[in-house]
Amino acid sequence: MMTLPEFELHRPTTLDEATGIAAKLSAEGHAFDFIAGGTDLLQNYKNRINCAPHVISLKGVKELHALEPTQIGALVPLRELERWADCPQGMQDALHDLASPLIRETATIGGNLLVDTRCFFFNQSAFWRHSLGYCLKAEGTVCHVVPQEEICYATSSSDLAPILLVLDARLDLTGPDGTRNIPIRSFYVDEGRAVHSKEPNEILSRVHIPAESAKLATGYRKLRLRDTMDFPAMGVAIGVEFTKKGTLQDLRIAIGGVSAAPLYLDSVCAPYLGKKPSGDLLDALATDAMNATQPVKNLVVPTRYRKKMVKVYTRRLLGELVGETQVAVLRT
Predict the structure, then answer these.
(1) Is the pLDDT assigned to residue 242 strictly greater than 70?
(2) CB 3.0-4.6 Å disulfide test: which of 81, 157, 311, 330 passes with 118?
(3) What number of other Cβ atoms are within 10 A of residue 283's Cβ?
(4) Comparing C-alpha atoms, which of 231, 130, 146, 222 is closest to residue 191?
(5) Homologous superfamily of the 212-321 domain (CATH)
(6) How far is residue 286 from each of residues 138, 167, 205, 309, 320, measured CA to CA in Å?
């Protein structure tokens, strides 16, 4: 079924009106979804995945379209971010590899940060899921990735989350009781159904990028089967800053597409601070990043390959960011 199910569409024009509608529906016991660009949500609805009878469109909320040097409204389209003069290089990389130009005209930064986790057993038609017996994330009671009835192993699929973890972004979450500002590094939840810590009545309203993050040299590289359209099978975001002596003053690595939440590898990076980059050091760092990940068999791309590519992509991107003239061949 590729037609949309029936639902009541609400079209608020202010944040207060949007959160008020959400609070009213919640108090009355009605399920609802917020919709931004709709590029992911509507596809799930067409597949009859976790549909709600009420949908609150945020397109008309003007406060969510603001774009300033260190602040991004959650409804800013990805295509507009690509043209943004203050866009960090790592974000530019992620945006260039995200979906297709046509989708980026509609998809939003807030929508990508909130995009649902993905799994081979979940992102299928209703007929396909019914024939299998459904899964823990939709309609069923068992996870088919790691068979049990407690934890969902669907995988984080946001391209922008890893690079915003590296940039140490903060998020505004606006609800009926006001706005709270939280670090993105504490936003995601390592469980495929929970996804994030946003309350159902809250709206991701703004993304804040610290001005000091401009000191970082950043980049993002993505593993996928096709150059366009595909969600990440694995994505690596890195930020580096050097002292005047050429040693690593700051080093940040985040990995997406390998677990239910994007991974921020601060414990992997810490031992390398204060050291001068060399081929052997970058090899060791890439290996440590790979060893910190444990993909599961929930995407078309094989698990062992995704894990190995963490090392390959991390090593290549590190080489580019530290200024190697030629990326060294990885030792196997």
Answers:
(1) yes
(2) 157
(3) 17
(4) 146
(5) CO dehydrogenase flavoprotein, C-terminal domain (3.30.390.50)
(6) 36, 20, 35, 10, 13
Average pLDDT of span 119-148: 95
Cβ count within 10 A of residue 20: 14
- Beta bridge mates, 206: 73, 172
- Give mean pLDDT, residues 270-298: 97
Query: For residue 219, what are the β-bridge partners?
Result: 238
For residue 155, give the 3-state DSSP assignment.
strand
pLDDT digits (tens, 9 = 90+) for 267-283: 999 999 999 999 999 99
Phi, then psi, of 190 in degrees rounded to 5:
-85, 60
- Write down the pLDDT at residue 328: 36
Residues 6+ apart with CB under 8 A from 300: 120, 225, 233
β partners of residue 56 = 10, 34
Largest Cα separation within the chain, whole Å, is: 63
Where are the domain boundaries for CATH 3.30.465.10 in the chain?
63-210
Fold topology of 63-210: 3.30.465
The pLDDT score that the predictor gives to residue 323 is: 86
| Nearest C-alpha neighbor of 322 from the set 288, 292, 283 | 283
Q: pLDDT averaged over the chain?
A: 95
- Assess whether pLDDT exceeds 60 at residue 124: yes
Which residue in 292, 284, 290 sits closest to 328, CA to CA?
A: 284
In the chain, which residues fall in CATH 3.30.390.50?
212-321
Q: Compute the distance between CA of residue 81 and CA of residue 100 in angstroms, rounded to an integer.
A: 14
Q: Using CA atoms, how far apart are residues 208 and 13, in angstroms rounded to an integer?
A: 23
What type of residue sits at position 114? Answer: L
Let me know: does 109 contact 165? Beta carbons within 8 Å.
no
